[in-house]
Amino acid sequence: MRLTRPMLAVGGAALALALTGCGADGDRDAVPETATGSLERLAAEVECEPDIQIDADELRQALCEQAEGEVKGAKGAKAGKAEKYVLLTFATDRGQREWINEAKDYGGYYLVGRKWLAVGHEDVVTSLRATLGGDIEVGADHSGGGSHHAGHDG
Known about the structure:
There is one protein chain. The chain is an alpha+beta fold and about 150 residues long. It is about 30% helix and about 25% strand. The chain contains 4 helices and 6 strands; from the N terminus they run ααβββαββαβ. The chain has a 6-stranded antiparallel beta sheet with strand order 1-2-3-5-4-6, sandwiched between helices. A hairpin with a 2-residue loop joins β4 and β5 (about 115-120). The radius of gyration is 16 Å and the shape is globular. This is Lipoprotein. Keywords: Signal. It comes from Streptomyces broussonetiae.
């Protein structure tokens, strides 16, 4: 079966939606130079043993876990619980941007480097940024400023 970009984007975005949540203020500390390299090299930088989910020519995707206490200085860290995040590498800048543009419709937090990104809760992405550098992008807000049942009167 050949994986197409839309299939990968929808699958990755659904996983991103499942792993992400709403947050507030971002971290404004000094950011290191943006990391580069393979999925394995990036994973090693953040001490992740990558669980490879997709290994295709266009992109590689792995699930990583950030153990309790690894979220450094992030607000709203969930104590006592390991948090999962997704680490992806892309063959091209264009492929990466297309993936992000489609995935951001599902919400979430994205740490973006050159031909790589990490997707997870805001505190995890902020923590990863302290090691990997990169820019944080935020997906669509689905917090529901209104009622989900707007058509139903009491």
